């Protein structure tokens, strides 16, 4: 049996880390913080950021959009965003004139690259859309845009570029 426990041992050989205070954090779902950048039409709440959990490189939280509602057009600067649909039906519109559209349901992931103008729409007339959101940075960047959307957006079906 080897004494080598991996490359991370060397990082902590001279200092003891208090894993109780600097280890895993569980943030209860009813303890999220709504004091974060907002976009009209949706409610964002922070679960994980530097102040709440010590995260250095990511932000995570929830997004709720009421039945038959939609957000204003916006982007998140140089941040990448991942949206995981927990409940409901999401319709995403994106592009300079929100000319593209795709839908996602429970269990689906949505990736939004940096600077992409987009709009989230609750495609259900009577069910709240509930999502989990993860961003690649700590800054609560939300740039709300004044965009005149095209009348009939083009539906875009995702195709895995690796397994075409």
TrEMBL record:
Organism per entry: Rhizobium metallidurans
Gene3D superfamilies in the cross-refs: Jelly Rolls (2.60.120.10)
Residues of the Cupin type-2 domain: 62-133
InterPro entries in the record: Bacilysin_H2HPP_isomerase (IPR052535), Cupin_2 (IPR013096), RmlC-like_jellyroll (IPR014710), RmlC_Cupin_sf (IPR011051)
CDD domains, per database record: cupin_BLR2406-like
Region annotation Disordered: where it falls in the sequence: 1-22
Name listed for the protein in its UniProt record: Putative RmlC-like cupin family protein
